[in-house]
Write a structure and sequence with these properties.
With about 350 residues, this protein is an alpha/beta fold. It contains 14 helices and 10 strands. Strands 1, 2, 3, 4, 5, 6, 7, 8, 9 and 10 form a 10-stranded mixed β-sheet that branches. Helix 8 runs parallel beside helix 9 and helix 10 runs antiparallel to helix 11. It is globular. The C terminus is likely disordered.
Length: about 350
């Protein structure tokens, strides 16, 4: 039985595969299995992964119909045989001591979860690095389930609580409680982690970053979501609030954090509305913004929220005063400032 199962979903990732697999193969820690789930790729991804599998018996490649990353990871869990599970994305970068450090920490401290930091690397459409931001958490040792749940909001505030790739999980716990990714448009990682926290007693946070999360400036997150964006973020918000209430942890701090998180997602949505190449008329853009800022749930969360940064604070203030034209104008200026463009330019 391998000590670690690495699960990597791939969909049309041929431009990333060689670098991804080389970084995994060259890890200092060798006792792992690599489970690649090809989620119905239409490029050469499956064949490229198979070529690696022929040379390295630790690599297992599974092809399935396209359903989404959530379903691919679930298939990886079902196929895994390791004592521990780690989730990677194929378009990110990993330090060669990632597995060794995470394994040593979870084994020597006898905990159910190890959480590390990460490095956020923003790149342009050619892969050139534009910006690097290191998420360097403080060290923590939570010794009881209540201690973990008490600090759930702290983990999220430190930007380490929701993501998958900065953690090593116990396979036994995932399988005992049948923890799976659910089909959400957004937030499936957040909800998976919240479900895992419910079933563990010890967790350690280390102040190191081994994983580089790659953010493509030309493909911002707000381009990925559709007409029902409010339903998407509301669904995530409702799930987490219900968890906090269930745990008895929905206090004023938790309420403020969750409302702020929700408001950030709404501001993020405005970028997609203001985007000049989305095919919407100016009238339609105004109507969409009006629908959002007059929504009861949005208004309720906006009152409690406490967003950071001058720009976000200004947009938040304009949302409260229903200044639709100013919101669209300022977001448009921000898009230009951030050099967000499609293949035709802004």
């Amino acid at each position: 039985m391998p000590q670690i199962s690495i699960i990597v979903p791939i969909y049309n990732g041929e431009k990333y595969i060689n670098k991804c697999l080389e970084m995994i193969i060259n890890q200092k820690f060798k006792d792992f299995e690599l489970i690649i789930i090809d989620d119905g790729s239409t490029d050469n991804s499956f064949n490229m992964c198979n070529d690696y599998a022929k040379k390295d018996l630790r690599i297992k490649v599974i092809s399935k119909k396209n359903e989404g990353t959530w379903a691919a990871r679930n298939r990886g869990i079902d196929e895994s045989k390791g004592k521990y599970i780690i989730f990677f994305d194929c378009d990110d970068w990993y330090e060669d001591d990632l597995l060794a450090e995470m394994y040593q920490c979870i084994e020597s401290n006898e905990v159910d979860l190890v959480i590390a930091g990460q490095t956020n690397v923003t790149v342009d459409k050619n892969g050139k690095t534009i910006r690097i931001a290191k998420v360097q958490p403080k060290g923590h040792f939570f010794r009881t389930k209540n201690d973990i749940l008490d600090n759930y909001i702290l983990l999220r505030e430190e930007e380490i609580g929701d993501t998958l790739w900065n953690k090593i999980y116990k396979s036994e716990i995932i399988k005992k409680y049948n923890l799976k990714f659910e089909k959400y448009k957004r937030g499936e990682d957040t909800i998976f982690n919240a479900n895992y926290y419910e079933h563990i007693d010890k967790c350690i946070v280390i102040g190191k970053a081994f994983y580089s999360y790659i953010i493509e400036n030309s493909n911002p997150v707000w381009l990925k979501y559709s007409e029902n964006y409010l339903n998407v973020v509301s669904e995530e918000n409702d799930m987490i609030v219900s968890k906090l209430i269930k745990w008895g942890k929905y206090n004023d701090d938790a309420m403020e954090y969750q409302s702020t998180h929700f408001t950030y997602r709404i501001i993020e949505y405005f970028y997609g509305v203001a985007y000049p190449k989305n095919g919407l008329s100016y009238k339609s853009k105004c109507e969409k913004v009006l629908d959002i800022i007059t929504n009861e749930e949005v208004e309720k969360n906006l009152i409690v929220s406490n967003v950071n940064g001058k720009f976000n604070k200004l947009i938040s203030k304009l949302m409260k005063s229903k200044k639709i034209v100013l919101i669209l104008f300022l977001i448009r200026i921000k898009l230009i400032h951030n050099n967000i463009k499609d293949h035709n330019g802004l």
